[in-house]
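Thread: Modeling a multi-component assembly for a lab meeting

Hi all, long-time lurker, first post. My supervisor asked me to bring a structural picture of a complex we are working on to next week's group meeting, and I have zero experience with this. I have the sequence lines for every component (359 residues in total). Could someone generate the structure of the whole assembly? Inputs are pasted exactly as I received them:
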Amino acid sequence: MGIQPETRTGGALSEPLLAADPFTVDGVAFGSRLIMGTGGAPSLDGLGEALEASGTELTTVAMRRFSPAEQGSLFELLVEKGIRVLPNTAGCFTARDAVLTAELAREALETDWVKLEVIADETTLLPDPIELADATEQLVDRGFKVFAYTNDDPVLARRLEQLGAVAVMPLGAPIGTGLGILNPHNIELIVARAEVPVVLDAGIGTASDAALAMELGCDAVLLATAVTRAQDPVRMAAAFRHAVAAGRLAAQAGRIPRREHALASSPMEGRAQFL
Amino acid sequence: MNTTTTIAVTINGEGRQLDAGATVLDLVAAATGREIGPDGRPADGGRLGVAVALNSEVVPRVRWAATPLAAGDAVELVTAMQGG
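Re: Modeling a multi-component assembly
Sure thing. I ran the full set together rather than chain by chain. Output:
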């Protein structure tokens, strides 16, 4: 129809808004608020494409025994793509093991950033609060920048921040469950009281979960399985890229209050009268 | 250096025989198949992306060349793998 204006792309309008609002942690600014982990991908090629589609600038890796067959290709892939590495301490059950793993990661990858993960058992993979607090203290003493993977417990999150964590990363639901954010109220409480960035980590199942995390006020979202084990990881990675950006914009835009009754958005005055 | 005898060590949980007098640097060079300078960095200027724990203590790369291995040592050689 001739009277329609030319098509405008929403991206062109939203990109400057997003660019003016970087995610900053430990003094480093990232354009993307999505941290995509590398866990669970069946192949490195597929992983590379998914990372690219996600737009992530920071990714997690695990430290495992070197095998000549695999020869550091993941590390090379990340270096090639210019994605910063956040090593984790996945699989550690004690502060001692987590500290040693972090030391190995710092040495191997030449970064003092560490995603601290100290789990209690293999069924829940939930963080062990006592060991987690102990490890945070030890790592901060040793000069690490600790990204603490924590339960969705506002008290524990606060304690980890007081111990010197540079970011707290509460779980939405247990790792790999895809159950979403089980306790949004706790996440809001953590956000309200935190003075360091809050990263929603674990439990994300689909794009709307990530958008919700951002709407609750989180500074970023960390996920891996939701992309790497999706039927189409590249498409899902793109979905998360948009969801995180959308959630962030919505959080800052100031949503309307919830109302009990309807409120017409079209004026009642000036209606045509039909006899 | 006496290279006529060997020592038994454990590398990533597997028993191995190394030449007596072998250092951590020798071990890393052999495992990665890359030439490594005395500073523990690859001679080709790239990045190695590995770390070594010797009997549960991290050995910084700058000390690899000066750290000989002894019979019975347990070495962990790790790198970045996929993880969330």
